[in-house]
Amino acid sequence: MIILSKIRVYKKNGSEKKKNRYLVREERYITDQEAKEMNYVDPMNKKPLQREKETNYLFKLSKYAPLIKKKLEDEPDWCRPEQYLFFL
């Protein structure tokens, strides 16, 4: 992906390989509070939430917003799931 070669990505200090709850159906990590409120199961399919390790990476979105917006306008399928296209 060309866009990724233009973005400086930083590893977040102190967050390497944290274990977090993962909601598989939505392909996203959730907070401990959210997991507790869901009784540690997916409310739609009743499957247990998974524990996954993740490494966090950061970049300054505001610096790259025009580039990312153009990419998403040109190729809307580039972002999945679609619900995360809310800012266009």
Termini separation comes to 20 Å
Q: Mind summarizing the main beta sheet?
A: 3 strands, antiparallel
Q: Write down the Rg.
A: 16 Å
SSE succession? HEEEHEEH
Q: Estimate the helix proportion, in percent.
A: 25-40%
Q: What structural category characterises the helix and strand content?
A: alpha+beta
Kindly give the count of domains.
1
Shape: flat
Number of strands: 5
Number of helices: 3
Strand composition percent: 15-25%
Characterization of this structure:
The chain is an alpha+beta fold and 88 residues long. It has one domain. The protein contains three helices and five strands. The strands form two sheets. It has a three-stranded antiparallel sheet with strand order 3-2-4. Strands 1-5 form a two-stranded antiparallel sheet. Strand 2 and strand 3 form a beta hairpin. The chain is flat.
Features:
88 residues; alpha+beta; three-stranded antiparallel sheet; two-stranded antiparallel ribbon; 3 helices
Task: Write a concise synopsis of the structure shown.
With 88 residues, this protein is of the alpha+beta class.
Secondary-structure map:
Layout (H helix, E strand, L loop, with lengths): L1 H4 L4 E2 L6 E6 L4 E3 L1 H6 L12 E5 L2 E2 L2 H14 L14
Antiparallel strand pairs: 1-5, 2-3, 2-4
